[in-house]
Design brief:
The chain is built from 15 helices and no strands. It has helices at 12-30, 36-59, 78-96, 103-126, 129-133, 135-145, 147-166, 174-198, 212-236, 240-253, 258-269, 275-290, 294-307, 315-327, 331-344. It is globular.
Length: 349
């Protein structure tokens, strides 16, 4: 029986998303009636993103982008939103309606909560509401996952307990409660995706991963790998300048996206000399900085500095990194970056 990799619960993208969404939800709540529409849009965006997270993890993609602004469109991806709202509303009604009392209420709540992960998995992978709500499909998936589905339900229970504990925090930590609630919701999708991934070879459902979109992605990365192999061959032949030109052309062909930077940087780390990856890291760190991902840019700069003593970004950018490091209280790193910036500045006439 495959072990479910619940380390996926610490996915950094999801943690950052939970912090941002928790802050936005609290901000919307503080705005009263004026913030009601904002809260609805953020909540619907969160609903959609959960299914995206599940699909990405099932695909084996541990690094994926955060929600885009388009996700706040209240009319986008209706079937996914319908699925999330349906189960959320059903659980709410079962928990609050006065017409169901005693053990019956708890039995129905347990049944609905127990089938939600399987139903959400089918919805995320097929985008088909009929398949996601059909008893036959849900039953078959639960049977295929076997003991791992029980583990998933245990994780779901623990996440619910953790979120319940968070609601008991003092009022001045209410924003933390929101962040924990968002993380708990997304963490369930992370765990569900990890469970599907562990059974990739056993599930007919995972045939959806071999659709045209996925084949195109694999072919695209195969072309990237061929280009990176050419660059590596140039390095091995003593032509590093040619290798850097090849890599630059590859990155430009993909629109200087963070995805191609990350993929290329990871690939170059496997080369004999990590200093080549550090040279790309100069541009990669600046690209992260320009996208507002300052902590990642700072961490990458520190990593590249360890990979290569010759890692020296442009003086202006290094000064910005140093100032940011000092804001974070990382004074030693800030001092090192200040020294690098001073060494890179042209000498006064």
């Amino acid at each position: 029986m495959a072990d479910v990799k619940f380390s996926a619960l610490a996915n950094p993208t999801v943690i950052v998303t939970a912090i941002v969404y928790g802050f936005l939800l609290k901000l919307a709540e503080a705005a009263g009636i004026a913030g009601l529409l904002l809260r609805v849009m953020i909540t619907l965006s969160l609903f959609r993103y959960g299914y995206i997270v599940l699909r990405n993890i099932a695909n084996g993609w541990n690094h994926f982008p955060p929600p885009e602004i388009e996700s706040t469109n209240p009319f986008g991806q209706f079937t996914v939103v319908f699925h999330a709202v349906l189960f959320g509303t059903l659980l709410f009604l079962l928990a609050t309606t006065p017409f169901i009392e005693g053990p019956v209420r708890w039995v129905l709540l347990v049944i609905v909560a127990s089938v939600f992960p399987a139903s959400a998995a089918i919805m995320a992978m097929t985008r088909n509401a009929g398949a996601a709500l059909g008893p036959a499909g849900i039953t078959n998936l639960i049977g295929d996952l076997g003991g791992d589905y029980l583990k998933l339900l245990v994780v779901s229970l623990l996440l619910s307990a953790f979120m319940s504990l968070a609601t008991g925090l003092p009022w001045y930590l209410a924003i933390v409660t929101e962040m924990v609630s968002v993380w708990g919701y997304l963490a369930l999708f992370l765990a569900t995706g990890a469970t599907l991934r562990a059974h990739r070879s056993d599930l007919d459902l995972m045939e959806g991963l071999d659709d045209a979109e996925q084949r195109e992605e694999r072919e695209r990365q195969a072309q990237w790998q061929k280009t990176l192999d050419r660059a590596y061959a140039s390095v091995r032949s003593g032509l590093p300048a040619q290798a850097y030109r090849t890599i630059k052309e590859l990155i430009e062909s993909e629109g200087d996206s963070l995805e191609i930077y990350q993929w290329t940087f990871n690939g170059m780390l496997a080369w004999d000399d990590p200093r080549h990856a550090a040279m790309l890291g100069e541009r990669f760190a600046k690209r992260l900085w320009d996208e507002g991902r300052k902590i990642e840019a700072l961490e990458l700069a520190q990593r590249c500095r360890k990979l290569s003593p010759s890692f020296v970004p442009p003086a202006t950018f290094t000064t910005e990194l140093a100032a940011y490091a000092r804001e974070l209280g990382r004074h030693r790193l800030a001092d090192e970056l200040d020294e690098l910036a001073a060494a890179r500045r042209p000498a006064s006439p």
